[in-house]
Specification:
Elements: E1 2-6, H1 10-21, E2 25-29, H2 32-41, E3 43-47, E4 50-54, E5 59-60, H3 63-66, E6 69-74, H4 81-88, E7 92-100, H5 121-125, E8 133-144, E9 147-159, H6 167-178, E10 182-185, H7 189-210, H8 214-219, H9 221-240, H10 249-257, H11 265-271, H12 278-292, H13 297-312
Helix pairs in contact: 7-9, 7-11, 7-12, 7-13, 9-12, 9-13, 12-13
Length: 331
């Protein structure tokens, strides 16, 4: 199987190196210093006190030079997905599998979500039949261009968007498991994505706003209660879109507590002056609240505050998603 990683940073570098080290041909669509590093040194990953490595197959900043692949793993931040999508098209052949390893609600989750795929540009460039869904339960960082560092977890949940069992799903499962990942094939990948979002919805923006680690957020009863109220709103939305969650916010907080004094990805992005993934994690829930008729006053407040915070620091476009933030006119 010929594989291409799009976004060979932290998560992409981790997946790419593990696959290459397992003997699979793994190339990359990359640019700048990452492109040079992959061509010079191949795939590199710091994990368990060791430096793992694997040869990099074809690496280019132009997908037309690479041509169609069997599997394309997209591991970029949500804010750049729309701009990147069209450039990925040359990697797609009739039977190419696309595995998006991304945070938040992905473009394939539901049609016509303007907050994450304005105008449907991503859906047009990467049609749904190519997609196998993926929910990432691991964390990594980029130590240097072309060098990923594993932090914790090795979990990947994958599944066909329609819940079907398929030979291609089995093949991707075996490929990732052979590379050392803890893989689960799920018949309800949309629900798996919504459940992960349920925790990130509050922890990510609250941490970015306050600069606090996860343990401090949960230790403050006022902040924890606010997070719980927002989560109840999202839980009600999930029940209406076929992604019911059979858990209380406090039970979800207990899961988060196990991570200790961690910094969320949104807080890390804010500290580094990078665009934050606000739309895929919060704005989309606000949009779905309007679509389903679920009142979301706590989510709305969180979105407004996080949006102003990010705009004032140049981490979020001033006019982005303005139509979605208009006053509610429905029930």
């Amino acid at each position: 199987m010929k594989i291409c990683i799009v976004g060979a940073g932290a998560v992409g570098g981790l997946i790419g190196t593990r696959l290459a080290a397992s003997g699979v041909e793994v190339g990359a669509l990359a640019r700048g210093e990452t492109l040079v590093a992959l061509r010079t040194h191949g795939w590199r990953l710091k994990q368990g006190g060791q430096l793992l490595s694997g040869p990099a197959a074809e690496v280019s900043n132009d997908a037309r030079e690479l041509g169609p692949r069997d599997l394309v793993i997209i591991a970029v931040k949500a804010p750049v997905t729309a701009a990147l999508a069209e450039s990925v098209t040359p990697l797609l052949g009739p039977s190419t599998i696309v595995l998006p390893a991304m945070n938040g609600v992905p473009w394939w989750f539901m049609p016509d979500l303007g907050s994450i795929d304005p105008g449907g540009a991503v859906a047009k460039a990467i049609p749904l039949p190519h997609v196998i869904g993926c929910v990432v339960h691991l964390s990594a960082a980029t130590e240097a261009p072309g060098v990923a560092a594993h932090k914790n977890g090795m979990g990947l949940i994958i599944g066909e968007p329609d819940g079907a069992s398929s030979s291609r799903l089995a093949a991707v499962h075996a490929l990732l498991a052979n590379a050392g990942f803890s893989v689960t094939s799920s018949p309800a990948i949309r629900s798996e994505a919504w459940y992960k979002l349920w925790g990130n919805l509050t922890m990510n923006p609250v941490s970015a706003l306050t600069g606090a680690t996860g343990d401090r957020i949960l230790d403050d009863p006022l902040v924890r209660n606010f997070c719980s109220a927002a989560m109840l709103e999202a839980q009600a939305i999930g029940a209406r879109i076929g992604c019911a969650i059979d858990q209380t916010p406090e039970e979800r907080h207990a899961v988060t507590r196990e991570l200790g004094a961690f910094k969320t990805s949104m807080l890390l992005d804010a500290e580094r002056g990078r665009p934050i993934e606000l739309d895929a994690i919060v704005t989309v829930v606000h949009e779905l609240g309007k679509r389903t008729g679920v009142a979301t006053p706590n989510i709305d407040a969180l979105l407004g505050l996080a949006r102003l915070f990010a705009q004032s620091r140049g981490l979020y476009p001033a006019a982005s998603s303005s139509s979605l933030l208009a006053p509610r006119t429905g029930p």
